[in-house]
Every structure is written in C-alpha cells, then in structure tokens.
Amino acid sequence: MIKNFLLLLTSIFLLNGCISITKEVPSYDTYRLSLKNSNNQTNVPLNKSIYIYEPKSLSSINTKAINYSKEHFEQEKYALSKWSDKPTKMLQELMANYFVSKNSFNYVTTSNIKTNTDFRLVSQLVDFRHTFTKTNSYADFSIRVFLIDNKTEEVFFKSFTYNKVAKKSDARGVVIAFDELINIFLTDLNNFLEKSIIKSK
After folding, report:
1. Which of these, 102, 4, 107, 91, lies nearest to 53 by C-alpha position?
2. Is residue 166 part of a domain?
3. Which of 2, 41, 91, 160 is the most exposed place for a label (fewest CB within 10 A)?
4. Would you give the DSSP letter of residue 177?
5. What share of the chain is helix, strand, coil (3-state, %, to 5)?
6. Residue 127's closest CA among 117, 139, 142?
7. Which pTM does this prediction carry?
8. Domain count of the chain?
9. pLDDT at 199 over 50
C-alpha cells in the first residue's frame, strides 16, 4: 500500500515537473517577407515567359535563423525569432508573385516540371543579415541576378546591393527593414528585366 502510494506520488511529481518545464519554454516568433501592392507601377507587356530558379546561397546565409553580426564579425542568430522558410525560397516565391501581379509576362513559373520558357532567371544570394555598428543597425541584402535568353543563350547580369537602417535593433525591426528592401529590389529587378528583354529583341 505504502509502495503504491509512493509510486503514485513520484508519478505526480514527475508529471507536474514536465508540465511546468513545458510552460517555461517560450515560443518562437516566426516571420515572413511580404509583397507590397505594385499596382501603382507602370506595366510594360513583354509577351514572354520566364522560369524563376531558387537563388543559390551559402548555407550560413540560407537558414531559417535570423542572423546578425556586430561590425561584420562573428555571425550569431536570434534565439526566439526565425523566418517561416529559407530566404532563397521566400525570395523565389516573392519574385514569381510580383511578376504575376505585374502581368508583364505571359507565363511565370517556379515549378520543377520541365517547361519551355523564353527566359530563365538565375540568381545568387550574397548577403542577408542584420548588422550592428556602434551607432545603428542595418538590414544588409545583396543578390546577383542572371537573365538568360533560352533561345540565344545571351546573358544579362546585374548585382543589387542594399542596406537600410532598422528602426528597432531587434528581430522584428530588421524584418520590417528587410520587407522594405525586398520590395525596392523587386521594382529594380523588374526594370532591369524589362530593359534587358527589350534589348534582346
């Protein structure tokens, strides 16, 4: 009887311990990049199709962790904040959604299913992190893009580099700054593609 009582008491103690440990573990804040309204921008109908590849990147950059560094030294990550997906996947999705919303192309795809398109967009994500200096903190974003004409194999190249002061030096502050930068990049990328495709005709 006493043995059963002690066993029951131990079980209750362990169960309460597990529940309290679970309650003490804080949850992650998960962030994603979002597409802003692009309807107010001029649209140049290109009558072309494009395949958008997922950007290539170093694994240290391409992580769900929201990274930061101080004075461009050792990289660390926010303990309780993360991206909803890897930056390259978010960028691929945003580029495709942006071009679909612009209605410039006849057809936009990111599918792994092999399809014939007029152009393919290949890119390399170079920098994507929160950098602290003595006075401010910045969202740093850099990407190289290659637009390839599938018929002629002509390549158009451009490198895009941006940084923006984060209004708050925390994960949420840098996410807002990245959101603004990516939407500027999408507008610049669209202008680059329009000029390149018109030049290729």
Report:
1. 91
2. yes
3. 2
4. H
5. 35, 30, 35
6. 142
7. 0.82
8. 1
9. yes
Q: How many CB atoms lie within 10 A of CB 55?
A: 24
pLDDT, tens digit (0-9, with 9 covering 90-100), for 69-115: 886 667 888 989 999 999 999 999 999 999 999 888 999 999 988 78
**CA 24/CA 9 separation, integer angstroms:** 23
Domain range spanning residue 141?
29-200
Residue 187 in domain: yes
The candidate with the shortest Cα–Cα distance to 173, out of 134, 139, 133, is 139
For residue 20, what pLDDT is reported? Answer: 47
On whether residue 178 sits in a domain, the answer given is yes
- Has residue 19 got a pLDDT over 50? no
What is the C-alpha separation between 96 and 52, in angstroms, rounded?
7
In a domain, 7, yes or no: no
Q: Which residue has the tokens 């309290």?
A: 20
